[in-house]
């Protein structure tokens, strides 16, 4: 959030609370998965500074998502070091806890490739200290937003997990469709339609039917979007209920973050100690 909205830090506490509640409501169990806040561990910033010393600018400037962000958010003044250096910070997030497999979206693969290059460079220069991570892609490696670009809060094209049914219906109505299908009766091309991309995730019960009836033109986009919105609302209902219950528990998020930081601190301190020693700081 800071890379693109550094002038809106008043929204940070609520964003942290919301993100942790999302994770917990989605089923992340803090007993099995450590949930912690990056800024609770100053070693992260220290290691980012050190890895920044060995990261060529050319690697960072080549990252496609950097140029896309500058283009997509042209109205904001975000050509800053934080955004350019984001892959370095991401490398630290992964390597400071010895991450081996990193669940990423398709658009993050270039970031991870830089992480792997930075790790190889570090290990070549200072000895085998950092673990080289590998990508772990999900079955849905890229979810499209209402404008056909990657779904992202900062692009304002996302359906939030916590959206209520009215908001979900309103957002689905704004989704782009096949531009050649102007009205019911026109044949459509589901393979290029962002609405169909979401049907793949939410509408297994009518996926083949939607594909067929879009192509023949019998299915209109308005009805198709209604079918999609119904399914998203139904499938996110348990998440919304669970999130509301969790939000009502006083101090829950602060407790989860404090316990997470305490659990991860020894690992982070151990890695940072090894990095300092390898670079002759200790
Ligand atoms: S009918 Fe559905 S899948 Fe086909 S173009 Fe319209 S919204 Fe997309």
The helix/strand series, from N terminus to C terminus, equals HHHHHHHEHEHHHHH
| Dominant shape | globular
The averaged pLDDT comes out at 93
Helix content: 55-70%
What is the C-alpha radius of gyration, as a whole number of Å? 22 Å
Strand content: under 5%
- Output the number of helix runs: 13
**Head-to-tail CA distance between termini:** 34 Å
**DSSP strand tally:** 2
Q: For the largest beta sheet, what order do the strands appear in spatially? A: 1-2
Unreliably modeled segments:
none
Largest sheet: 2 strands, parallel
Bound molecules: iron/sulfur cluster
| Class from secondary-structure proportions | mainly alpha
Quick structural gist:
This protein has 282 residues and is an all-alpha fold. It is 56% helix and 3% strand. The longest helix has 27 residues, at 221-247.
């Amino acid at each position: 959030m800071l890379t693109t909205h550094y002038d809106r830090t008043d929204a940070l506490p609520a964003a942290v609370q919301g993100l942790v509640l999302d994770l917990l409501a989605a089923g992340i169990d803090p007993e099995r998965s450590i949930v912690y806040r990056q800024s609770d561990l100053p070693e992260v910033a220290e290691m980012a500074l050190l890895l920044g010393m060995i990261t060529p600018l050319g690697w960072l400037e080549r990252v496609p998502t950097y140029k896309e962000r500058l283009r997509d958010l042209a109205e904001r003044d975000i050509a800053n070091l934080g955004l350019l250096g984001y892959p370095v910070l991401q490398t630290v997030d992964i390597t400071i806890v010895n991450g081996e497999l990193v669940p990423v979206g398709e658009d993050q693969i270039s970031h991870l490739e830089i992480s792997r290059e930075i790790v190889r460079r570090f290990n070549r220069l200072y000895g085998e200290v950092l673990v080289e991570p590998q990508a772990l892609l999900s079955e849905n490696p890229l979810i499209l937003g209402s404008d056909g670009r990657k779904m992202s809060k900062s692009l304002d094209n996302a359906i939030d997990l916590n959206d209520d049914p009215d908001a979900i219906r309103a957002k689905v109505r704004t989704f782009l469709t096949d531009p050649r299908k102007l009205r019911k009766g026109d044949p459509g091309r589901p393979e290029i339609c962002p609405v169909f991309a979401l049907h793949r995730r939410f509408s297994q019960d009518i996926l083949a039917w939607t594909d067929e009836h879009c192509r023949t033109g019998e299915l209109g986009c308005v009805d198709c979007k209604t079918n999609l919105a119904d399914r998203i609302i139904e499938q996110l209902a348990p998440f919304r209920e669970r999130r509301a219950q969790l939000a009502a528990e006083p101090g829950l998020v602060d407790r989860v973050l404090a316990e997470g930081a305490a659990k991860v601190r020894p690992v982070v301190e151990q890695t940072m100690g090894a990095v300092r020693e390898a670079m002759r700081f200790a």
